[in-house]
Amino acid sequence: MDKNTIDLKLLSGVLDKYAAVKGSLITILQHTQDIYGYLPKEAIELISERTGIATSEIMGVGTFYTQFRFEPVGKYLIMLCQGTACHVNGSELILQTIKDELGIDDGQTTEDGLFSLKCVACLGCCSLSPVMMVNEDTYGSLTPDKTKKILKELREAKG
Question: What CATH number does residue 118 fall under?
Answer without folding.
Answer: 3.40.30.10
